[in-house]
Amino acid sequence: MPLSVQSESIGLTNGSDPFAAHGQTLHPNIRGGNVQAQTRCAKSIAYSGSLDMYPHHDLTPVIGREYMDLQVTDLLMGLDRDRQIRDLAVNISQRGVVFLRDQDISPTQMRELCESLSVLAGCPESSGLHIHPLTEEGSELGDQISVISSEKQKRGGGLTHQLSDTSRYASVGWHTDISFERVPSDYAMLKIHTLPPTGGDTLWASGCDVYDRLSPAMQVFLEGLTATHDAKFFLEESSRLGHPLRKGQRGSPLNYGDSLTATHPVIRTNPVTGWKSVYVNKGFTKRINGVTKDESDLLLNYLFNLVIQNHDLQVRWKWSKDALAIWDNRSQLHCATYDYIEARAGDRVAALGEAPYLDVNSKSRREALNQATTRF
């Protein structure tokens, strides 16, 4: 099915700055990125207004929007399909996460919608849907569907096992999906179809707002640094659970093998909004490069605490049966709440975006919104 986005790729050139170890650099004001996985957005994407007919409300001033009376399958089959799905992508990127209840959407349609969001918002031609390293070959729902279930967690799957012997703080689960890949996720969605009577909420936090809370001097300092993201614990989990690791291409030619390690800018730019955000997370970010281990630990703990301790940059979602959440992993973090004993299960799809980069001339969310307000 042909999909297109009216944008251009950002030009690339070889570089020799601190980001060069991570691949070619985007020139002249771009740090990071990779010539094989660059966004096709030459500038941020404007919302066209095609979803204005659907009632909605923002859950907090900073993050979260819920649409009512909107079935996303209607967008997939609509006459104005591409424009409406692109507008949905813009809403997700600007608000961080969009929620919709009572969605009648199959796993196959979830794959179609997630891929369409990514393509219509300018993902690289080389990026597709992600295949998780621990997805079993021949999975009933397909390689691109990750089953999120309490039964898997009871067996010690995913971040719950990694963190189970290190902390009793619920906040240790904050993460951004698959940041250990060289080309990580842009859009991801989760539909919960089985849930306990209470509990199992998910929280999201705005990395853009984290950036806005940094002092100007700290912003400039962090913009010159990269961080190492690592999911080597999946190797142990693969052996322990008897699931062979998927070493082939996982949705991008750059995502392969069993290193499960990547280096990304500490501050990245979201090409859809043009906003800067902090791009480190407690689940996968192990080290800030170019500083001592002690300095790295101090910086990471400070950035993690900005996420954990500021409830005014978070939104908490109480799931209902067949509710759907769609978020932008480039600028948001999320954390599940394991406060239940009953069954909880759902399906997740994650699309791949561009190799993370920083455009030093991009703006913060606060700066961009203030400029937009003063023009009217």
UniProtKB/TrEMBL annotation:
Molecular function terms, GO-annotated: 2-oxoglutarate-dependent dioxygenase activity; metal ion binding
One Pfam family this sequence matches: TauD
Domain TauD/TfdA-like: 58-340
Swiss-Prot/TrEMBL cofactor(s): Fe(2+)
Residues covered by region (Disordered): 1-33
Biased composition (Polar residues): 1-16
Keywords for the protein's UniProt record, in alphabetical order: Dioxygenase, Iron, Metal-binding, Oxidoreductase
Superkingdom, taxonomy of origin: Eukaryota
GO cellular component labels: cytoplasm
Family, similarity comment: Belongs to the TfdA dioxygenase family.
Protein name: TauD/TfdA-like domain-containing protein
Organism for this UniProt entry: Endocarpon pusillum
Lineage, top ranks: Eukaryota, Fungi, Dikarya, Ascomycota, Pezizomycotina
